[in-house]
Amino acid sequence: MKQSRKRLVTGAVLLAAVVLLSLPERRSPVDAPAASSLAAAHDSSATVALTEGEPFRWDSDALWEMLEKRFVSARGVGCGASTTVSAAGIRRINDLVAQLRGRPVRASDARWTSLESALFEVAPLVAACPANAQQFVSAYSQMRIVLKDQSVRWDLDDRAVRERLYRLMYGGRAAVEEVLLQMDGDSAAALARIMGHEETLDLPSAIVEGVRVYSGDILVSRGGFPTSALIARGSDFPGNFSHVALLHVNKNGVPSVVEAHIERGLTVATVDEYLADKKLRIMLLRPRQEVVGRMESPDGPHIAASRARTRAFNAHVPYDFEMNYTDPAKLFCSEVASSVYREQGVELWTGISTISAPGLRDWLGGFGVTHFETQEPSDLEYDPQLVVVAEWRDPETLYRDHVHNAVVDAMLEGADAGDRLRYNPASLPVARVAKAYSVVLNGLGRVGPIPEGMSPGAALRSRSYTRRHDELVEKVMTDARRFEEANGYRPPYWELVAMARSAVSSQRG
Are the C-beta atoms of 172 and 140 separated by less than 8 Å? Predict the structure, then answer.
């Protein structure tokens, strides 16, 4: 009798545990009306920082089709005439850049529009006949330097100004990369690094990848994981970067990198460790001399980097899945730089990032994000307080980077149409047990199967998203190979997006 009662109690306890572990997970609301001002987003009493904005849209399908036809035509007629025409186009770009250099020019100046058109018109000719590729890349680099210099006087809270910067900087990079992707590997590798503005500071420095870096420089990069693509594309101005890190150089000239990882929180890595962690592209940013002059100390960038590094060694700082850049108790990658620069009197991210698409907000909310007016890695490029010192990418993986972007763009279109990140509810009890195990490991200073700060449901959604993303990438890669076999050239980005849309539709079916 006692044995029977014991089995009954044990069964009841196990049943109760299964029921509790299977209860649906509650999520923070992400669909409230937009806030009317930035102040509302900074209200610490709010559960969710609300935003108002609008996703940027090129709406230029006719232009993309025309550019592809121009590329095909140039390949067909031979490179003699095309090279001559592209050389003239590059001279036009350089002439416009020279006109825009120096004295103040408004963002509304019509010459910026002419410059954008010239970049897009020349790109397909250079892609077809790359004899002038070096000159084209150099023209883009000079354009970006002048644009960044002029933007110091612009109001980045003005939507038209943000769009001007985005169209030229992101659009120009896209044009350059379409050229690189049509070149052979060795030729593309020779142009994979673009040098920019040389800003010399009186701070500890070192040489990294052939470039002089200073303590306090900022690295923005693109990881090679599915979630990296989502971070890069997941804002009102979809970008190319998913991670921010802060460079520190000690008095002996030894560099290190301070960054926040989802799995480990705030950490310090050697430069070799940083570069070995899968990177598809890297850009080096540096505060302008006049910005350093406004800081609390002439060594302000170095002090900022030193404080971030010291904090990483002295305390455990967990990753901030909420993306609340106003609370330094937890840090996501952008906050590693912005929090310590703020202590030195500099507010990075002039023109804060907004995430307003309802489908994207729902997906990010499912991962734990509660702040949608925040600091996106890609948007730091547009901050006029910083100059672009250098940018380099891995030409061998650049094409896959474009495929990942196209897939995410198509997936987010589906999200706005009602697609949701779902998981099998039967997996939730197991995920909750894994989370409990992770909590124990975290307490011992180790990493568990579910990152600290991530809920079991968010972990399951992340796994579901990764699985869907990888399936779509392989489908698009297969379709892209067929396109290349049929046409003799790699599909440009807009063709990849069309393939991704078709793959998303098939997957949904």
Answer: yes
Gyration radius of the chain's alpha carbons: 24
**Distance of alpha carbon 250 from alpha carbon 434, whole angstroms:** 40
pTM, two decimal places: 0.89
Mean pLDDT taken over the chain: 88
CB-based burial of residue 140 (10 Å sphere; 0-12 exposed, 13-18 middle, 19+ buried)? buried
Q: What residue spans of 248-299 are helical by DSSP H?
A: 271-276, 289-293
Q: Specify the long-range contacts of residues 147-153, CB closer than 8 Å, at least 24 apart.
A: 147/100, 147/112, 148/197, 148/384, 148/387, 148/388, 149/101, 149/197, 150/100, 150/104, 150/105, 150/107, 151/107, 151/382, 151/384, 152/288, 152/384, 152/385, 153/104
- Closest to 332 measured CA to CA, from 266, 267, 269: 266
Q: Is the predicted pLDDT of residue 346 greater than 60, yes or no?
A: yes
Whether 149 and 288 have beta carbons less than 8 Å apart is answered as no
How far is the C-alpha of 476 from the C-alpha of 483, rounded, in Å?
Answer: 10
In this structure, what token pair is assigned to residue 254?
Answer: 């030894």
Distance of alpha carbon 224 from alpha carbon 180, whole angstroms: 19
Structure tokens at 138: 């150099």
What is the 8-class DSSP label of residue 317? -
- Tokens standing for residue 243: 């991670």
64 pLDDT above the threshold of 70: yes
Q: Where in the chain are the domains?
A: 61-191, 195-393, 409-508
User: What is the C-alpha to C-alpha distance for residues 153 and 335, in angstroms, rounded to an integer?
Assistant: 25
169 three-class SS: helix
Give the DSSP H/E element, type plus range, for residue 285. strand 279-287
What CATH number should be reported for the domain whose range is 195-393? Answer: 3.90.1720.10
